[in-house]
Amino acid sequence: MDWAGWALFGLVATTALTAALVAAQLAGLTRLDFPLVLGTVVTEDPDRARIVGFLMHLGIGQGFALGYAATFALLHRATWWIGALLGAVHVGIALTVILPLLPGVHPRMASPRAGPASTAVLEPPGLFAVNYGVQTPTVAVVVHILYGAVLGLLLDAT
């Protein structure tokens, strides 16, 4: 397996994915601020949460990059299109399983069943994260396919 490639290119791909998500948010394509969502798990301060969340996202991205690298090693082949396909599977699971479950474990996120007494500061993403805007699923798909394609291009399958 390409350990050096995983260590470096996992960071490159995750940084590219996070930068694309932030750019999409700033362009008004989505209201999803994933570094904020992750960071508010550990701190209430939104400025500090974005920094902590970015670092958390880098760590999570490294974990996923390890899975991609292992898959390429098992297939004895790493290409942009295999990486893009893995990215599509990755985002499918994220949008349909992980994000809808997040309100159950996030201390500052309302659940879909939260009543008026809720003090949560983040709204739940909902299925496909559409609560953060109707273009959010498209943005998520594009950036995760980009993530996988970058890893497929840069990682060595051996």
UniProtKB/TrEMBL annotation:
What keywords does the record list, in alphabetical order? Answer: Membrane, Transmembrane, Transmembrane helix
The source's superkingdom equals: Bacteria
The membrane-spanning stretches of this chain are: 51-75, 82-102, 132-155
Q: Would you tell me the protein name for this molecule?
A: DUF2938 family protein
Q: Which organism is it from?
A: Micromonospora globbae
